[in-house]
From TrEMBL:
The protein, known as: Four-helix bundle copper-binding protein
Ranges that cross the membrane: none
Taxonomy, superkingdom: Bacteria
């Protein structure tokens, strides 16, 4: 099942999907869950992972909110969506930078999806200009 297909089926989409936005929504959904999982794994680590947990949870929340707004086709609020995508890209970069400081496999995986998501968010924001 593809979220891009679901977006295209919305009556307001008229079978057209902004591809960069569809890609961003796809990654946002995964990134939110990966960050949530990484935060949980960080809490189980023996070392103090407080900052990593915080950034992963913040990133997850911002990704979730951005994905929800990116899915909406009814009406138009592109300026806010563009700002949220830009904010999300920055948050993903910050989370990735924190995760990259740790030698845990869950942090490495989280950093990777965060970097991919940041790139897609930046591309989607640019497509809404």
């Amino acid at each position: 099942m593809s979220i891009r297909k679901m977006i295209a089926l919305h009556p307001a989409s008229k079978d057209h999907v902004n591809q960069p936005l569809g890609d961003a929504v796809h990654h946002l959904m995964y990134c939110a869950k990966m960050c949530l999982s990484c935060a949980d794994a960080c809490m189980a680590e023996a070392m103090d992972m407080t900052q990593c947990v915080r950034l992963c949870l913040d990133c997850s929340d911002i990704c979730e909110a951005t994905a929800r707004l990116g899915l909406r086709r009814t009406g138009n609020d592109q300026p806010i969506l563009r700002e949220l995508l830009q904010l999300c890209a920055r948050m993903c970069e910050q989370c990735a930078a924190e995760c990259e400081q740790h030698d845990h496999e869950h942090c490495k995986l989280c950093a990777q999806i965060c970097r991919e998501c940041a790139s897609d968010c930046a591309n989607a924001a640019a497509s809404l200009a």
